[in-house]
Amino acid sequence: MATKVLILCTGNSCRSQMAEGFLRELGGAEYEAHSAGVAPSQVNPLAIQVMQEAGVDISGQRSKSVTEYLGQHFAYVITVCGNAAKNCPIFPGPSIRLHWPFDDPAEAEGTPEQRLEVFRRVRDEIAAQIRQWLAETRQR
């Protein structure tokens, strides 16, 4: 049975969407990846673009509210921003809560290319974190 993982951030538009995409891609059938936000909005087009550059298609993902998942059990609940960490609801059963703070690329300012560079940096940080976490959890 796949390990269920919920990744949370505020808007479920960038960081948690990218993390869901990477976990789905890198975790394979061993993991069931979900993401949500405490105040969902929409998937950021720049997140879709930089993930496509990395070979991961998140264009079919949608921004979801954490309330869609209330009552479900997750082996891991991972927050990727401070707001989600503070406002994360309690999920039933034994869940391991992790907090991986990443900068919010949606707040990047500057030229379109400068903004893209921030998205790429955060994407690469998320990918590295997912790879490290998968290596650690697979050793257990």
Task: Explain this structure.
With 140 residues, this protein is an alpha/beta fold. It has one domain: Rossmann fold. The protein has helices spanning 15-27, 45-53, 82-87, 112-139; strands spanning 3-9, 31-37, 76-79, 96-99. It has a 4-stranded parallel beta sheet. The two termini are 16 Å apart. The mean pLDDT is 91.
Helix content range: 40-55%
Strand-and-helix sequence, N→C?
A: EHEHEHEH
Number of H/I helices: 4
How much of the polypeptide forms β-strand, as a percent range? 15-25%
What's the number of structural domains? 1
What structural category characterises the helix and strand content? alpha/beta
Shape: globular
Model regions low in confidence, pLDDT < 50 over at least 5 residues: none
CATH class: Alpha Beta
Do you know the CATH topology?
Rossmann fold
Mean pLDDT: 91
Q: Kindly provide the radius of gyration, computed on alpha-carbon positions and rounded to a whole number of angstroms.
A: 14 Å
CATH superfamily: Response regulator
CATH architecture assignment name: 3-Layer(aba) Sandwich
In which order are the strands of the major sheet placed? 2-1-3-4
Number of strands: 4
Give a quick account of the main beta sheet: strands, pairing sense, barrel closure: 4 strands, parallel
What is the first-to-last residue Cα distance? 16 Å
